[in-house]
Design brief:
By secondary structure, the chain is an alpha/beta fold. The protein has 2 domains: 138 residues, no CATH class; 56 residues. Helix content is 46%, strand content 25%. It has 5 helices and 7 strands, in the order E-E-H-E-E-E-H-E-H-H-H-E. The strands form 2 sheets. A 5-stranded mixed sheet has the order 5-4-7-3-6. Strands 1-2 form a two-stranded parallel sheet. A hairpin with a 2-residue loop joins strand 4 and strand 5.
Length: 211
């Protein structure tokens, strides 16, 4: 059987096994990766199954959006051709191949050149990862909206119950306490609305001949 990270052109062969980033096998591989440090040596490799003329830097990136009590991550592959083009289908194809084939490492890019290659890829990743970043931020906004609606419903139900109390002083005291609690919740919601985003490289590999 073949494996595919993402069907190209929407076509999937019936013998293919689709591997998304949420597949247990893929997720375990990705979760084991640390952030790629600046200046680390980048391996130069040959990978069978690619068309002729594919030379450039492949990398895997993680987008994280985090806030108090909430965090989501997304991942995407990136390929920057030697001529500067960013080729998304090629990036996915290389990822597919890496899941099933062993690349043949025959060299390395090191020191200043490695840092320059990584920086160039990072600039491309900022653009290519923007859609995923927006998707994660939208997911967080949806989470906050549901949280606010649920809490507002609970406060309204408690207020209705308190308003039925017969003793005026007791009723007013408890309504005042409820209002203070509601105000504290609004302040907490404001704190929660401030999220932090990060874009981190996890893997680099130069495909083809070294520069």
């Amino acid at each position: 059987q073949n494996t595919t990270f993402q069907p190209i052109g929407g076509q999937v062969d019936e013998t293919d096994v689709q591997l998304t980033i949420e597949s247990p096998r893929v997720r375990s591989l990705v979760d084991a990766l640390d952030v790629w440090p600046v200046g680390r040596t980048i391996p130069v490799a040959q990978l069978s199954g690619l068309p002729d003329g594919i030379t450039g830097t492949w990398s895997l990136w993680r987008v994280t959006v985090s806030a108090p009590d909430w965090e989501r991550q997304g991942f995407f592959p990136l390929f920057v051709h030697r001529d500067g083009r960013v080729l998304a289908p090629t990036a996915r194809r290389i990822w597919d191949l890496l899941l099933s084939n062993q690349p043949v490492v025959h060299g390395e890019i090191a020191n200043r050149e490695a840092a320059e290659v990584a920086q160039s890829s990072h600039q491309a990743a900022e653009t290519q990862g923007e859609a995923l970043h927006l998707e994660l931020r939208q997911a967080y906004k949806h989470y906050l909206t549901r949280l606010e609606e649920k809490k507002a419903y609970a406060f309204a139900a408690r207020q209705r119950a308190l308003e039925r109390l017969g003793l005026h002083e007791v009723r007013q005291h408890r309504l005042s306490a409820l209002q203070q609690e509601r105000q504290a919740w609004q302040e907490d919601l404001q704190r929660r609305s401030r999220s932090v985003s990060a874009l981190d490289p996890l893997l680099f590999m130069h495909i083809g001949e070294a520069y």
